[in-house]
Amino acid sequence: MQVITGAGRFTAPEPGESRRYDEQLRVTDLSLGTYSVPVGGVDTQQPHNEDEVYVVTAGRARLVADSGEVEVGPGSVIYVPAGEPHRFVDVTEDLAVLVLFGPAEYTRSQSQSQSQSQSRS
């Protein structure tokens, strides 16, 4: 067992940055971190090769993805499949999001991601 402290807590980006990601856990099949985007911040993330689950712990924004868009706030839980372009926009309150990657972020190659996506179709 491991207690993960600080997960889901908003942390302001460094000066000159528009967002912040802090990884709190990494094991072979899972990673977890907190993604923070302040009001006026810009989410510049690129699609990941891993599946993601977002759990919004604070703030308000809209998540825009190829498959649609949704308003998010505390308690929102969203699944984004590997390879799907998506980003948070219109951040109206400092946004803090727990991000769970399966498998751990940056461990799946693009070809693995594509074959996973095709098997879900």
From TrEMBL:
Xref: Gene3D superfamilies: Jelly Rolls (2.60.120.10)
Coiled coil (UniProt feature): none
Region (Disordered): 1-20
Superkingdom classification of source: Bacteria
Residues covered by the Cupin type-2 domain: 35-99
Pfam families xrefs: Cupin_2
Listed InterPro entries: Cupin_2 (IPR013096), Flavonoid_dioxygenase-like (IPR052538), RmlC-like_jellyroll (IPR014710), RmlC_Cupin_sf (IPR011051)
Protein name: Cupin domain-containing protein
